[in-house]
UniProtKB/TrEMBL annotation:
Signal peptide: none
Keywords: Calcium, Disulfide bond, Endoplasmic reticulum, Glycosidase, Hydrolase, Membrane, Metal-binding, Signal-anchor, Transmembrane, Transmembrane helix
Function: Involved in glycoprotein quality control targeting of misfolded glycoproteins for degradation. It primarily trims a single alpha-1,2-linked mannose residue from Man(9)GlcNAc(2) to produce Man(8)GlcNAc(2), but at high enzyme concentrations, as found in the ER quality control compartment (ERQC), it further trims the carbohydrates to Man(5-6)GlcNAc(2).
Reactions catalysed: N(4)-(alpha-D-Man-(1->2)-alpha-D-Man-(1->2)-alpha-D-Man-(1->3)-[alpha-D-Man-(1->2)-alpha-D-Man-(1->3)-[alpha-D-Man-(1->2)-alpha-D-Man-(1->6)]-alpha-D-Man-(1->6)]-beta-D-Man-(1->4)-beta-D-GlcNAc-(1->4)-beta-D-GlcNAc)-L-asparaginyl-[protein] (N-glucan mannose isomer 9A1,2,3B1,2,3) + 4 H2O = N(4)-(alpha-D-Man-(1->3)-[alpha-D-Man-(1->3)-[alpha-D-Man-(1->6)]-alpha-D-Man-(1->6)]-beta-D-Man-(1->4)-beta-D-GlcNAc-(1->4)-beta-D-GlcNAc)-L-asparaginyl-[protein] (N-glucan mannose isomer 5A1,2) + 4 beta-D-mannose; N(4)-(alpha-D-Man-(1->2)-alpha-D-Man-(1->2)-alpha-D-Man-(1->3)-[alpha-D-Man-(1->3)-[alpha-D-Man-(1->2)-alpha-D-Man-(1->6)]-alpha-D-Man-(1->6)]-beta-D-Man-(1->4)-beta-D-GlcNAc-(1->4)-beta-D-GlcNAc)-L-asparaginyl-[protein] (N-glucan mannose isomer 8A1,2,3B1,3) + 3 H2O = N(4)-(alpha-D-Man-(1->3)-[alpha-D-Man-(1->3)-[alpha-D-Man-(1->6)]-alpha-D-Man-(1->6)]-beta-D-Man-(1->4)-beta-D-GlcNAc-(1->4)-beta-D-GlcNAc)-L-asparaginyl-[protein] (N-glucan mannose isomer 5A1,2) + 3 beta-D-mannose
Name this polypeptide is given: alpha-1,2-Mannosidase
GO (cellular component) term, any one: endoplasmic reticulum membrane
Amino acid sequence: MYSPQRKDFVSLMLGDQHSHNYTNGKHRRQSCWRKWKQLSRLQRSLILFLLAFLFICGILSYPSLTEQWRGLPDRSLKEDWVEMDNQGLRPIPPGFVPKLPPGVVPGVQDIPPEVMPEIQRPSIPLLPKPPAMRKPPSKRGPPALQKRGNVSDWQVKDGEEAMIKRDEDGGKEAKTLISWRGAMIEAEQGTELQSTAHGKEGTVADAEDSANLKPVKAVDRVEAVREAFRHAWKGYKAFAWGHDELKPISKTHGEWFGLGLTLIDALDTMWILGLKDEFAEAKKWVETELSFSKNVDVNLFESTIRVLGGLLSTYHLTGDTLFLDKAKDIGSRLMPAFKTPSKIPYSDVNIGKGTAHPPRWTTDSTVAEVTSIQLEFRELSRLTKDPQYQNAVEEVTRHVHRLEGKRDGLVPMFINTNSGKFTRRGAFTLGARADSYYEYLLKQWLQGGKKETELLEDYLQAIEGVRKNLLRQTSPSKLTFVGELSNGRLNPKMDHLVCFLPGTLALGAHNGLPADHMELALQLMETCHQMYAQMETGLSPEIAHFNLQSNNGRDIDVKPADRHNLLRPETVESLFYMYRFTNDSKYRDWGWDILQNFNKYTRVPSGGYTSIGNIRDPLNPAPRDKMESFFLGETLKYLFLLFSDDNELISLDKYVFNTEAHPLPIWPSTSSGRSPELS
Ligand code: DMJ
C-alpha cells in the first residue's frame, strides 16, 4: 500500500497555493530558491534529470512539428481538398497558381478570394499552398520550339533534370536514357536556336486555329498528313540521310544499327501516301547504299519489325524484287539468334559476323521480342520457299504455348534463353516487354487464314486473363484501363504502348471473336483518347497513372518521369481500326486533334518532328531532339489511313499490319494453316 511518508516521489509545489499575488520578481526568485534548497539531493537530481529529458525530447520533435506546420503531406492535402469539396466549398485544383503581379511572392494572396474565407476556417489551420505547378494557359499556345532565351533553358524543367547535367562553362553533357522499343532517349547536344514553329513556313500549324473552329473535310486531313510527312522527310533528308534517326533540333543524326532505319521504316508509308518522288529517291538509296554486310550488333526484334517488315511490305506493295532480295539478306543474317540451348532467340545479332548473344547483364530475352517476329519470318519463308525461317519462329511459339508460369493466359516479361523458362521477375502487363505477344497471337491466326487454333486459344484466354486480373475503372469518370499486376498487387498504371489493344480487340471482333471484345475496345479507346485530351498539350504521356480512390480526384495522373511523348503510334493505330469498323467520325476527330498537337508542339521549323519531355507544359514542352523512325513508319501512316475514305487502301480483310505498321498479306486459304507454298 502507498505510504505518504515515503519520499520516493517529487513534489513540485513551488509556490503557496493560496497566495496568487506575487509582489515582485525578486520575492518570487527568493521564494523559489528557498524551496529548491529545501529539497533533498535526490529530489533535485530527479528534477534536473526530468528537465533535461524534456529538453532533449523537444529538440528531437522540432523538425517533424515544423514539417507539419509548413505543409501537410500530399495525401492529407488531397483529403483536405476533398473535405472542402464535400462541404460544398470550391477546392483549389492542385496545380492552380493564379497570375501574380511581377515581383509578388506567391503566398496566401495566391488564393482566389472566394476560397479565402474557407481557408481561414479554424478547422483547417495553416492550410498549405497547393503544389506549385504552372497554370495551364486558357488557350493552348505555341510550343517552345521557338526562339526564347537560351535553348538550354528548355531542358531543366520538371522531370527533365535527370536528363541533363550542365558542365561548368554552361555547356551541356547529354545523359542517354534507354527506354523500351527503340526509344533511345538522348538529350540534345549543340542545339541551335530555332525560328518560330509557326513563323514563315505557312504550314499546317498556321491553319489549325481556324481548323479548330470549322469542320475539316476528309480530303484536307489526308493532305495535312502528306504535308506533315514531307516536312519530316525534309529534315531527315537534309540532316540524317541514310542514317537511323533524325535529330531535328541539332540538325544531325543518331545512329542505332547504322541501317538507315527511318528510311526503310518509311518506304511503304511513302508508297501508301502516294509520295512518288520521295519514294524514288529512297529506293535509290536502298539499291545503291544499303548493305547488311556490316560488323554491327542489331537487336533481333527491332530489326525484324522495322527492317525485315518494312522491306517485305514494300515488296508486296510495289512488286519490286529489290526489296525482297534485301529482305532475304537481312532475314538470313538474323538467323544466328536462334542458336541457343533452348531455341529461344538471343536479343542481339552481329549481322556481319553471324554471331548472336544476350544482353551483357542477363541471359534472358524479352517475351514480346521473341514472340513478335513471327509474322515477318513466316512471310519470308512463304516468299522464299525456304522453311527455315518459319520453323525457327514457330518453334518459339509452340514452346511458349506449352510453357508453365502464365497467369490466366498472361505472360511474364522475361524468358531465359538457356532454360527456356519464364523468369519470375517483372509484372504481368499489356505494356512494355509483353504487349505485342498478345497482338501477334491474333495476327498470326489471321495471317494463316484462321486455321491455327492454338494461337486463337491463347489469345482468347489472354483477353479473359486481362479482364480477370488487370482491368479496372477509374474514379470519378469510370474510365476503363489495363493495369499491371506486380507481386499479386494491381498497379494502376498503363503505358501508352497498351493503346494498341483497342485496335487489336476490334480487329478480333471484326473477325468473329466475341462481341464483348468490341465493347472493351470502345471503352479502352476512350481512355487512350483521354490520355491525350486531358493533357495541357493534348499529347499523351508515356505512362499514365489512374485514380482508383473514390475521392473525386483526377482520373489520370502523370508522374514527372513519365511526361515525355515519343511521337508513338499506338493510339492513332487503334483510332484507325475503330474508324474502319464503326465509321464513327469522332475517331477521325480525335486523330485530327493529335495531328494538330504534334504540329503545335513537336514540329521543328527546319524540318522534322521531335520527341518532347513534358506534355504538361505547353509553354515549354522540352524538345528532346529526336525523331523516332516509327513516327514515319507508323504514326503518320495510321493517321493517313484513318483520314482516307478509301477502305480498300490496305483492306483489313487482305492484310495484317505487323507491330511496326508494315502491312503483310493474309495468306490465301490452305488446309493446314502453314504457309501455302510450304504445305
Ligand atoms: C514500335 O517500334 C512498335 O510499334 C512496337 O511494337 C512498340 N513500340 C514502337 C512504337 O511505339
